[in-house]
Amino acid sequence: MSRIVITTTTFGRDDKAPLNILKQAGFEIGLNPHGRSLKKGEIVEICRDATGIIAGTEQLDGDTMKNLHNLKVISR
């Protein structure tokens, strides 16, 4: 199963429909457990096995990206 991590704290907060659409499409969903913008090391830890990221304002630099081997798409 492909995994999508949502790093932003606002996506799906007020309306669960987008999360339900992703789940019905067969995606496993990972949510930001910190309730704030993630730090560099946290991004790698939380998104390590993700196929996709629905990102907030976190910095996704080259050092971070080279540790996310399964990542295929980022959406902001």
Structure commentary:
The chain has helices at 17-24, 40-47, 62-65; strands spanning 3-6, 28-31, 52-54, 73-75. It has 76 residues and is an alpha/beta fold. Strand 3, helix 3 and strand 4 form a beta-alpha-beta unit. It is globular. The chain starts with a strand and ends with a strand.
Q: What is the helix fraction of residues, given as a range?
A: 25-40%
Overall SS class = alpha/beta
The spatial strand order of the largest sheet comes to 2-1-3-4
Distance between the termini: 22 Å
Outline: globular
What's the multimeric state? single chain
Give start-end ranges of low-pLDDT stretches.
Answer: none
Order of helices and strands: EHEHEHE
Which helices and strands, and how do they pair?
Layout: E1 3-6, H1 17-24, E2 28-31, H2 40-47, E3 52-54, H3 62-65, E4 73-75
Keywords:
76 residues, 4-stranded parallel β-sheet, 3 helices, 4 strands, alpha/beta
Give a short overview.
This protein has helices at residues 17-24, 40-47, 62-65; strands spanning 3-6, 28-31, 52-54, 73-75.
